[in-house]
């Protein structure tokens, strides 16, 4: 397949975005390895704490997603002042929401640890509370980084966010080794290293924003209100997405340890594949927003065709590789034959669903670019209804096994794809084809 100018632009934006997406899970693996050498109790505390913190990060993800679209759209329409005020609103709201999140976690840390299964009176629960209360201090700067990433990505710059991700996570690893092992601060040292790295990332984004071609401006009430309004459907959508993925693990846990182990292996593979495919959603969002901002519906439609084609080709290739190695990959993660068997079954379905996953992820980016946030929320909630019947049947009849879980995910992805395709088609064709 020959690449023309638009294809090259898509690839040039997607590759650094992929790098930035992959840095985070690789850091998490390193973080777990560092803390894991302290023992099972600190590792358990880290697992509980990071689960709670990840949920808060999901809630704040709108600061990045909405900022990308509005910056691309406003700048392309020629209203750079409005784009600058939108960036200013993102930074202001990120600080306010971040401070609120910090206060919430500081007060509710024992309750959060207990809710997730940690006994606060000692052991894992105590370590989780310690990590939560220290790491919560970094929430404002973490949210500022989300806004900064949205700002630069909206300017079609994913290279510098990738560099920031590399630098900040590199700092994190070095500091954790020094604080955990050098100064013997244990799990608390890991938390302090994370906070310090988040400060570095936020400082980098603020510095890059100050030198960007389009700089942030003081926002008005309108810009802040619009971002907060957009945040509601995007947050509901993200929480619904996370709920479906968490439900698969909860069901697998009730089917037995072999099934849970096989599902965990398969979900790790699925997660890496999802990050790879999701990189195409970034140019899809940016270039669609730019096209609609310039009133060029034909360019928006062409972006949709190109990114969808690339996604389907990439998804088909990754799916074929996953299926081909489904019998070998599980042995890398577990020596247990029963766990390997369950993982192989799941990976076969995982590979089968990759073209469908690619379509869903690319459409996420296209619909984000068209700023159809309410439709995204509706699609994700309705997709849960498609996921529920087979998931419930698997929960009620354990003989359905791990295949029931993974085919329920197929139903979920198919529903998302169909609903988002309807939204995308309405956004760029017919009399209603106007920017939201």
What does the largest sheet look like? Answer: none
Number of domains: 2
Estimate the mean pLDDT confidence.
88
Q: What sort of overall outline do the alpha carbons produce when their principal axes are compared? A: globular
Distance between the termini: 34 Å
Helix count from the secondary structure assignment = 17
Q: Count the strands?
A: 0
The topology string of helices and strands comes to: HHHHHHHHHHHHHHHHH
Task: Please indicate the percent range of residues in DSSP E strands (runs of 2 or more).
Answer: under 5%
Low-confidence stretches: none
Kindly name the structural category. mainly alpha
What integer value in Å does the Rg equal? Answer: 22 Å
What fraction, in percent, of the residue positions are helical?
A: over 70%
Describe the structure.
84% of the residues lie in helices and 0% in strands. With 436 residues, the chain is mainly α. The protein has 2 domains: 1-219, no CATH class; 230-436, no CATH class. Helix 2 runs antiparallel to helix 4 and helix 9 (221-254) packs antiparallel against helix 17 (401-428). The two termini are 34 Å apart. The model has no long low-confidence stretch (mean pLDDT 88).
């Amino acid at each position: 397949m020959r690449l023309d100018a638009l294809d090259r632009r898509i690839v040039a934006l997607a590759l650094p975005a992929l790098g930035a997406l992959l840095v985070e899970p690789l850091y998490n693996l390193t973080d777990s390895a560092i803390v894991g050498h302290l023992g099972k109790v600190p590792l358990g505390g880290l697992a509980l704490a990071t689960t709670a913190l990840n949920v808060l990060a999901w809630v704040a993800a709108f600061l990045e997603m909405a900022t990308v679209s509005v910056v691309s759209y406003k700048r392309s329409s020629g209203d750079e002042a409005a784009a600058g005020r939108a960036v200013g609103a993102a930074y202001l709201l990120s600080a306010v929401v971040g401070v609120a999140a910090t206060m919430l976690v500081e007060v509710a840390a024992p309750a959060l640890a207990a809710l997730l299964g940690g006994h606060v009176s000692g052991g894992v629960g105590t370590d989780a509370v310690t990590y939560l209360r220290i790491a919560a201090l970094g929430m404002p700067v973490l949210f500022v980084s989300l806004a900064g990433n949205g700002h630069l990505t909206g300017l079609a710059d994913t290279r510098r966010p990738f560099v920031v991700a590399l630098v900040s996570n590199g700092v994190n690893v070095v500091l954790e080794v020094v604080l955990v092992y050098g100064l013997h601060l244990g799990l608390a040292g890991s938390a302090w290293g994370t906070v310090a790295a988040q400060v570095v990332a936020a400082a980098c984004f603020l510095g890059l924003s100050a030198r960007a071609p389009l700089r942030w401006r003081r926002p008005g009430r309108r810009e802040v209100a619009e971002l907060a309004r957009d945040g509601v459907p995007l947050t509901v959508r993200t929480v619904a997405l996370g709920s479906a993925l968490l439900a698969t693990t909860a069901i697998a846990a009730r089917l037995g340890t072999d099934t849970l182990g096989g599902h965990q292996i398969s979900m790790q593979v699925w997660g890496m594949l999802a990050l790879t495919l999701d990189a195409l959603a970034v140019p899809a969002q940016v270039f669609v927003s730019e096209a609609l901002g310039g009133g060029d519906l034909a360019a928006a439609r062409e972006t949709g065709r190109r990114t969808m084609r690339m996604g389907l080709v990439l998804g088909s290739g990754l799916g074929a590789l996953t299926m081909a190695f489904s019998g070998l990959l599980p042995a890398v993660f577990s020596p247990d034959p029963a766990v390997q068997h369950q993982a192989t079954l799941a990976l076969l379905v995982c590979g089968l669903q990759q073209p469908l996953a690619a379509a869903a992820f690319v459409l996420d980016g296209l619909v984000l670019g068209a700023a159809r946030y309410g439709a995204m929320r509706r699609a994700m909630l309705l997709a849960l209804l498609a996921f529920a019947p087979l998931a419930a049947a698997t929960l009620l009849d354990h003989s359905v096994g791990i295949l029931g879980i993974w085919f329920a995910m197929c139903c979920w992805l198919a529903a998302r794809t169909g609903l988002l395709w309807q939204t995308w088609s309405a956004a760029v064709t017919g009399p209603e084809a106007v920017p939201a």
